[in-house]
Every structure is written in C-alpha cells, then in structure tokens.
Amino acid sequence: MEFCNKNMAIADYITKSKSKEWQPLIEKGLRYEGVFVKSLRFDEPTNRSKTILLKFEAGASYPYHNHPAGEEIFVLKGSCEIEGEQLEQGDYLCTPPTGKHGVKSLTGCTLFLMIPEEVEIIKT
C-alpha cells in the first residue's frame, strides 16, 4: 500500500489492531524474549514497519540502541524504564535523532511507537 495515495479511501488507511496477532519480535534473526510486536504501518519502499505496537512481558527488555532519525513512544498500558526514567500509562517520550537508550519493563507494558528509521543495536 502506498502511503498517502490521494486516490485511496480512508478505510484503506485503517489498521484494525485487534484483528492482528502479536508476533515475537525478531530482528536480524535475533528473537527478543518476552517482547511482541504488531505492525500498524508497513512501509514497502524501506521494507519495514515504521509504526508499531510493542508488548513487553514482565521482566522483558530491549537492548541499548541508537535511533538515527529519532522515535516517539506512548505508553498505552503498564510501565517501562528508559534511561533510568519510569514511564507510566499515558506518558509520552520523543527521542531526538541519534538518541540512545535501552528499554525494560519489570511489570509488563504495551507501547505505541513511531520509528522513522531502523534502530542500531549498540553492543556494550
């Protein structure tokens, strides 16, 4: 689907997330235990999802990484910790371009993310 094609009906832009199944988060062959994803907007030219839902089970984490073009996160449910800061339901984080952090959730959470460019995992 082409993004913002003026000839398409609004219904063509709606993603019914409840009808999508949670998928294990697997990137470059590596599965992140306890982290699941639903794609809301897949970008065909870059072959990746730029808008997603992420679900963390209690105790799950995502490693330290760089956001070349930034990122936006909105906490829909639960809580997570990013760079020592606790984000609760309703909190919003705008990570600037080249911003770096890891994510962990002790209790579990569901996040809405907009990620314009693929993240880069940083080995520590």
TrEMBL record:
**What positions does the domain ChrR-like cupin occupy?**
14-113
Q: Which Gene3D superfamilies match?
A: Jelly Rolls
Q: Which SUPFAM superfamilies match?
A: RmlC-like cupins
Where is the signal peptide, in residue numbers? Answer: none
Q: Which Pfam families does this chain map to?
A: Cupin_7
Q: What is this protein called?
A: ChrR-like protein with cupin domain
Organism field: Flagellimonas meridianipacifica
